[in-house]
Specification:
mainly beta; eight-stranded antiparallel beta sheet; binds manganese (II) ion
Length: 297
């Protein structure tokens, strides 16, 4: 009945693990696969640790996406098959464009703060560019105005220098104790918010950590408030308008493309290797029934 009322759909993140690291996966969810081009959101930490290393993501492939590593605390060492080796710290952005194919690893470095907290995000590449050559970029600092940092795309007048291939926003918004912030939104974007820590209200409605709040389109502003302070992730973009097929670390358009990528990974083709890595390719989960694996050579 209230078609014009703003939407606020709350969907709890799914709890899982990635090696030793506990993950709250807020995208994709059965109820929601995409927010603009954003197709994956894992929240991990905060954790404190000693001699163990909570993040140990062995070399693995990607196609069809950009991977986004954004930290709230701690460090991640990124390596890839283009010979990049970059230490990510809080406030910086690691952005990898997988395009046609790349291999990377992400690990807690040997020398570390003993703390880890952050998000891993994927952005689906539009069909016209998803087969481009892979690339990696690191930004040590991102534009910050007041308490808003935009790491991808733009929010109002704040624009990230990072490479994007469709209109979007990815921002961290810090709300101080007792503060209320009007946040400008593009009404042609769909948006979602995800509380990273603290508790807040969105247009007066309470929002809590580890829940994806989908806002739909047609909003030109939201009001974020907090009694005790909060950090909130804002994701948005033009509705993607393409149906993606997502399986393991691959995003494509057809099952055949997924099967071909899986075969290439297992056969040491296409994705390249990280210098010094001599381990056999990371095992892949069984292909879905509809996906016929290619003949292994
Ligand atoms: Mn990855």
């Amino acid at each position: 009945m209230t078609a014009l009322a703003p939407r606020l759909e709350a969907t709890p993140a799914h709890r899982t693990t990635l090696g030793a690291l506990e993950i709250r996966r807020a995208l994709p969810l059965r109820e929601r696969r995409l927010v603009g081009p954003w197709c994956f959101l894992d929240r991990y930490g905060p954790v404190t640790f000693g001699d163990d290393r909570p993040m140990e993501l062995a070399p693995h492939p990607h196609i069809g996406i950009q991977t986004v590593s954004w930290l709230l605390d701690g460090e991640i060492l990124h390596r890839d098959s283009l010979d990049n080796e970059v230490l990510l710290r809080t406030g910086g952005l690691n952005l990898m464009t997988s395009g046609a194919g790349i291999t990377h690893s992400e690990d807690t470095p040997m020398r570390n703060s003993g703390r880890l907290s952050g998000v891993q995000l994927w952005i689906a590449l539009p069909d016209a560019v998803r087969g481009i050559a892979p690339a990696f970029e690191h930004h040590a600092e991102l534009p910050t105005v007041d308490t808003i940092t935009v790491f991808l795309g733009a929010l109002g007048e704040i624009a990230s220098p990072a490479t994007t291939f469709s209109p979007m926003v990815g921002a961290e918004i810090r709300i101080g104790r007792g503060e209320s912030l009007p946040i400008p939104l593009r009404s042609d974007f769909e948006h979602a918010v995800f509380v990273l820590d603290g508790e807040a209200t969105l247009d007066g409605e309470p929002i809590v950590a580890d829940v994806l709040y989908y806002l739909g389109t047609s909003r030109d502003e939201m009001q974020l408030s907090s009694k005790d302070g909060a950090r909130v992730l804002l994701l948005g973009g033009a509705p993607f308008g393409e149906t993606i097929v997502m399986w393991w670390n691959f995003v494509a358009r057809t099952d055949e493309e997924i099967a071909a990528a899986a075969g290439d990974w297992l056969n040491g083709r296409r994705f390249g290797r990280i210098r010094g890595d001599t381990a056999p390719p990371m095992a892949i989960p069984p292909l879905r029934r509809r996906v016929r694996p290619p003949v292994m050579s």
